[in-house]
Design brief:
With 348 residues, the chain is α/β, with parallel strands linked by helices. Helix content is 41%, strand content 15%.
């Protein structure tokens, strides 16, 4: 972001790695916890809203960019009261049984940024996406990822042997479908023993028994010697460099950062053919897309790739090329800056 043009402020609920990183970039950080929007929290909501308005006034903020439904709603109310423009950032694809609150409140924001065309389709009215809905795909800092990392050093660091590696990087909450990956691994392990599987991820506090659940499932399949589970690492490229194939099994994924980072590392990616995945991967060119809930097909695809190092390398090279040309973070940043400038100009 051009810091000579934009003075940035970040309001987040608590201290953590994000606040540390923001301060390292000289971004002013405020702690502002937005409670769940229901009657039980009406006084907390009122206090949070007043704090937000005070923050905007005191720091002479010209434009608000919010994430997540509760932040979007409270931010929009503050923006309307203060006559400030607001951008909502939408990054999810609700499941069929979930209400799409953002679609119902489409009239509130000035602009909605969606991180994929699949997300933008949520807001279609009579088969047309409204002009206020813009698509800016997620970006990757390509310089941080390399297709030529010191693989053996990192394999040693993560206690991986010389067997080929199929891995996933994912939040471990239940909607991410990690059990499906274990099912695939079990089926693949029946065909070959020269492969090991890696799950990289972490959980929300309310699901802190997930590692235990997943390890139990792995144990039930008798796959303890073929599986490694590890928490998220700061330098994702280190663990990605160990992968021969990066798998992605989450359904209803909008614009997977795990897929983008795997492609940036020059890895062959196998993912589900739905959600925003087809916008990232050109099937059979920069990765392989498999129809959802087809366990046999996903397993066979992995098995064939494990037998074809040349094809893996070709897919990885094209993946890296696609990321560099279309998903570099600088492209994403420039498009966002242009939206900020236009919205500010329109509201002068």
């Amino acid at each position: 972001m051009d810091r000579e043009t934009f003075n940035l402020f970040l309001a987040i609920p608590e201290e953590g790695k994000l606040s540390e990183y923001a301060r390292s970039l000289n971004i002013k950080v405020f702690l502002l916890k937005i409670p769940q929007l229901n009657l039980l929290h009406c006084f907390s909501i009122f206090r949070a809203h007043n704090s937000l308005i005070s923050l905007i006034k005191k720091n002479k903020i010209d434009l608000i960019h919010s994430y997540s439904p509760r932040n979007n709603i409270l931010g929009a109310i503050a923006a309307k009261l203060l006559r400030k423009p607001i951008i909502w950032h939408e990054r999810n694809l609700p499941f069929d049984n979930e209400k799409d609150i953002s679609r119902q409140l489409l009239f509130l924001p000035d602009i909605i940024i969606c991180n994929s065309g699949a997300v933008a389709k949520r807001f279609e009215i009579k088969d047309k996406v409204p002009d206020k809905v813009k698509t800016i795909l997620n970006g990757v800092n390509v310089k941080r990822f390399s297709a030529n990392s010191d693989t053996m050093t990192f394999r040693h660091k993560f206690n991986l042997d010389k067997r080929k590696v199929v891995g996933i990087i994912s939040n471990l909450n239940k909607r991410k479908n990690v059990e499906y990956f274990i099912d695939i691994a079990a089926k693949l392990a029946q065909k070959r023993k020269d492969v090991q599987f890696v799950i990289v991820g972490d959980t929300f506090e309310e699901q802190n028994n997930r590692f235990e659940e997943l390890n139990k499932l792995i144990s039930n399949f008798g796959l303890e010697d073929q599986f490694t589970l590890t928490k998220f690492v700061d330098n994702t490229y280190e663990i990605l460099s160990c992968f021969n194939i990066a798998a992605h099994v989450t359904e209803r994924e909008a614009c997977s950062r795990a897929i983008l980072e795997s492609m940036a590392c020059g890895k062959a990616v196998v993912a589900l053919n739905e959600g925003g995945n087809p916008e990232l991967i050109e099937n059979n060119i920069s990765g392989i897309l498999v129809e959802p809930r087809n366990l046999d097909k996903f397993t066979d695809t992995l098995n064939k790739l494990l037998d074809n190092d040349v094809l893996c390398s070709q897919l990885g090279e094209m993946a890296r090329k696609r990321i560099t040309e279309l998903f570099d973070i600088n492209i994403n940043t420039k498009l966002t800056e242009d939206l900020y400038k236009q919205l500010y100009k329109d509201n002068e």
